[in-house]
Amino acid sequence: MEHNSQKLINLANKRFGDVLRDGFKLFSQIYKTLIMPLALFQIVLIILNVLLLTDLNLYIDSLGITTTEIMDRLIESTTLTPEEMRTLMVFFGLSIASMFLQNVIGAIIIAIAMCSVSSYVYKKYMNDDVSFLESFKSAFNKKIFLVILILGICLPASFIIYIPALFIFAFFIFSVFTYNMEVDKNPLSEARKIAKGNFWKIIGVFLINIIIISIISITFDFIIDFFLINESTIPIINGWYDPTTRNFGMLILYNILYSIVDIILAPLFICLLTVLFSSLKAKKDLGVQFQQAYQPSRDIYQESYRILRQEPYRDIETEETTSIPEIGIKNRLYCPYCGTLIKTPKKFCSNCGESLENVLGT
């Protein structure tokens, strides 16, 4: 029990840099196990996008040529005809619809993918005995539909106004873990409680994952474009999209090629998120115990200080010394987290930055 408590304290004490370091370490340790299922989900996502959205995107592209001419006329202050206005409205409406459908499909598949491996990754990080196959099977239960509803449908819908999407993401992203756990409250409440007060840490993990993948992906796409896209290949690629000569097989392979970085690095985000979730969950579970975990160290500092200076020397009082009130030894305050002497009561420790509100009773 004491070992488990110390383990939770170590998890709760992890700073953001420690979370990232452990996340990358976990990524390297279980990459071989995660890459196959997560890559499969990425390929399924590509297939669905190609089969469901190719015709819609092709029609939008055809409208885009006409729309460009209409916008040029609008810039020149030319009055648009009702038909041109209708074309503009159809173009922008279909563009938003296409983006929304693509986001919904992507969010649903990614939510299912994360749920399918979240329990395994979490238990592996906590050094628990776990079978990937059993964990994968247990992930698919009726509770998963709640996660799909929040992260797969509500989240993409909120992207229309963007800011609420970030809050929904930060508040409920941990539901990919809690939905399959034994919790006192419902999984969404538990996820919200763990995430509370840690908005920027969650967004930070998300942004770091996006930045890493984007940098590598842009570099890879540039190399592919340099060797693949030229005057002789463009007509062939366009022929794959043309309804009369369409080739879905080549379109799927073409999109897989340009998504290869996303496929290879698919396990990165769930590994980073797992470490952050483990740390925040440990802090939430410990509660007051976490705040008082280092209380004994303060007593040691105080006791040793009393032995060394049982009767402190008194200097001759001067105008300079009497103007600054001294705090008696018995009333001295030490940080319960790092043991630093707090000469002036403050809300936060000047050494470790932890909150002292509970110690001060504020």
Write a brief structural summary.
The protein has 362 residues and is mostly helical. The protein has 17 helices and two strands.
What does this structure look like?
This protein is mainly α and 362 residues long. The chain has two domains: 7-290, no CATH class; 294-309 and 326-360, no CATH class. The protein contains 17 helices and two strands. A two-stranded antiparallel ribbon has the order 1-2. Helix 3 (82-125) crosses helix 4 and helix 3 (82-125) crosses helix 13. The longest helix has 60 residues, at 16-75. The relative contact order is 0.11. Mean pLDDT is 84; it is low at 291-327.
Number of domains: 2
Q: Which structural class should the secondary elements be placed in? A: mainly alpha
Biggest sheet character: 2 strands, antiparallel
List the strand order in the largest sheet. 1-2
Q: N-to-C terminal Cα separation, in Å?
A: 32 Å
- DSSP summary: helix tally: 17
Overall residue-averaged pLDDT value: 84
Write the element-wise H/E pattern from the N-terminal end onward. HHHHHHHHHHHHHHHHEEH
C-alpha Rg (nearest Å): 29 Å
Helicity, as a percent range = over 70%
- Poorly predicted residue ranges: 291-327
Percentage of residues in strands: under 5%
Q: Label the overall shape.
A: globular
Number of strands: 2
Characteristic terms for this protein:
mainly alpha; 72% helix; 362 residues
Please describe the topology of this protein.
Blueprint: H1 2-12, H2 16-75, H3 82-125, H4 132-138, H5 144-158, H6 163-172, H7 175-178, H8 187-195, H9 199-228, H10 234-241, H11 248-258, H12 260-264, H13 267-286, H14 288-291, H15 295-308, H16 319-322, E1 333-334, E2 341-342, H17 357-360
Antiparallel strand pairs: 1-2
Helix pairs in contact: 1-13, 2-3, 2-11, 2-13, 3-4, 3-5, 3-13, 5-6, 6-9, 9-13
